[in-house]
Amino acid sequence: MKKHFIPAALFSLVAALWGCSPQELSYRMEDFSANNPDGDTLSGEAGVRVSLHYPVFSSASPADADRTNRVVDSLVFGAQGSADTLCARFFRRWDAFRNAMQGTPDPSSRQNTEPTEQEAGSDYLSPWYYAASLEVEADYRGCLSLSYTVSTNALDAPGSSLRKYYVLDSRQGTLLSAAEVFSDTLTLRKLLTDTFLEKLEATPGMPLQEQGILLPADGQLPLTDDFRISPLGATFRYDMSAIAPTILPESEIFLPAEVVGPLYRK
């Protein structure tokens, strides 16, 4: 019996016609949590907590999955490199803060293990928490839109809570800039600026700076890579403390699908 072999190119074409790809990324959500091991309250309950929620990707192409997971690790763990090192550093920060507030030396340098009167007051310190979540919000036009949020009450880094968007190539797993997703970025900037000024009810003809609005020299909002896309449209986030510091409007600007659709790269 003669065997027939299907060329790889033909197989890829058939897969495309059927709406599937052998290298399409898939994912599962991973949950990680840890308490500091020493316990910080009189009851012995561990008070400092780290909670992480993030996707772990897989693919028929291991290289694509590894590349994507490295991107996820860099977003969730940052310079720490792993969940364990992130937790260890956060717990050390809490210990240093607690000891400084109580005026006590580092516990590792003290021989006496009995709690001091000052240490007994640790019940009145609100233990820290750190919660980070990276969610896949949409799979659209070959892009995965991710939403990253961090919530923490760590008092040694005020203002560290944040929300940010990222867009990944759904096959390669690489981060995409707005210029890589949209073809006409000049029109995109104009649409964003017009929508922004309309929401602020800016006075036409009056210099924007006199209205508390600080835009670049060309009068248009800069292009930001803090964005997400979906079948409903595209959302862009800006640091309004730099653009409208005296007004501080909503940081997100939404362009509906019928407006932003013609600007996508084909």
Reconstruct the topology from this structure.
Layout: H1 8-17, E1 26-35, E2 49-58, H2 62-76, H3 83-102, H4 117-120, E3 129-140, E4 143-152, E5 162-169, H5 178-181, H6 185-200, E6 227-230, E7 233-237, H7 240-243, E8 252-256, H8 257-260
Task: Briefly say what this structure is.
The protein has 266 residues and is of the alpha+beta class.
From the spread of the alpha carbons, the general shape counts as: flat
* CATH architecture label name of the largest domain: 2-Layer Sandwich
Oligomer: single chain
Rg of Cα set: 25 Å
Instruction: Tell me the CATH superfamily of the largest domain.
Output: Fervidobacterium nodosum Rt17-B1 like
Order of helices and strands: HEEHHHEEEHHEEHEH
The low-confidence parts are 1-22, 41-46, 117-122
Instruction: Give the CATH class of the largest domain.
Output: Alpha Beta
Q: What is CATH's topology name of the largest domain?
A: Heat Shock Protein 90
Termini separation comes to 45 Å
How much helicity do the residues have?
Answer: 25-40%
Overall pLDDT, averaged?
84
How many individual β-strands?
A: 8
State the major sheet. 5 strands, mixed
Provide the number of structural domains: 2
Strand adjacency order, main sheet: 1-2-3-4-5
Would you tell me the structural class of the helices and strands?
Answer: alpha+beta
| DSSP helical segment count | 8
